[in-house]
Amino acid sequence: MTRDADARARACLTAVAPPGDLWLGAMLAEHGAAEVWAAIAAGAAPPAVPCEEDGRPGPQARETLLRRWRRWSAAAAQVDAEQLLSASAAAGIRFVVPGDPEWPGRLEELGMPGSRRTYGLWVRGAGDLRNLCLRSVAVVGARACTSYGAHVAAEMSYELAERSVVVVSGGAYGIDGAAHRAAHSAGSTVVVLACGLDVDYPRGHAGMFADIARTGVLVGERPLGATPHARDFLVRNRLIAALTPGTVVVEAGRRSGALNTASHAAELHRVLMAVPGPVTSAMSAGCHMLLRDWNAGCVTCADDVMAQIGPMGDLPEGPVRTSAALAPEHARVLGAVSGSGTGPAVIAAACGEGLDTTMRILGMLAASGLVERCPAGWRLVR
Questions:
Q1: Would you kindly state one Gene Ontology biological process term found in this protein's UniProt entry (predicted)?
Q2: How many CA atoms are closer than 13 Å to the CA of 144, on its beta-carbon side?
Q3: If we measure between CA atoms, which residue out of 251, 261, 253, 246 comes closest to residue 304?
């Protein structure tokens, strides 16, 4: 199985199955994406695989899994891999899979037994996902935040960005938006979305997302055009926690999506931090619970966060480049990129590679610091 076949299969799987399905993740680990996708597309029986969800061999549990498989097979009939990848590329969206230079190494911990693996990530923006996440902190909190929470999130995120720390959050209103805007004004930020990256959700953040894509990235597990479902936000939260060495909860009620992100951070043994607030504020009740019952670190500013994270300060600042010699096909793609900007379809035609292969190679060249995204497509890094 070639890497391209594996990537194409994983891209197709994002179009038919919900993110983080335990059963599908176990099948991918056992049989590989190409074999699993071929079985789904052909309407064949699912490959046998041990999984927590089918650990009870009763007929009712098995039938539930088979109904899920049949839904995926029915949806697969509408998926065209070439069209999916080319339409995504035209929208400035690339697909990154395990083993790619842009793949964040921390996500490998989602491959532990019982965890919700990601099949692959759709990425939009000029930044390099892996490099941005090397020095990063998640800043999350309530959508209906107070002015106190928005102020703390903005000030902390701005100071972190000044220290070359990338802020990762979920792109929502409230604390997320305040953190993204402040970090973007001083550095880079990563937005983890629960929908397709061409879908502006929430709509009021469309302008912010476009601005962030110029230096940072938007990332998600849903394909082009996918609108979010309620479950997707909770599954998305595990990515926010996994991409970073630590998570800060600025404001959260007792029942909050931010607390769900905190639980993922704790499960992944990440550094968990919380900002204290007024004892009379319902929006700080979740943070106080984290401080009291979860042994979260108490933080009030960027210096506190850096002290909690600790070893992250030893990581190199700025992008990481590789000095490895280019493979012939990589050299051909690089030779087709101009200094002013070239569209991906033009690059593919000039170098003689398919569009999906060209996009994957461009992602690798970007990870090496040789090319970058621009309004015209891709350009050489000066």
A1: DNA-mediated transformation
A2: 6
A3: 246
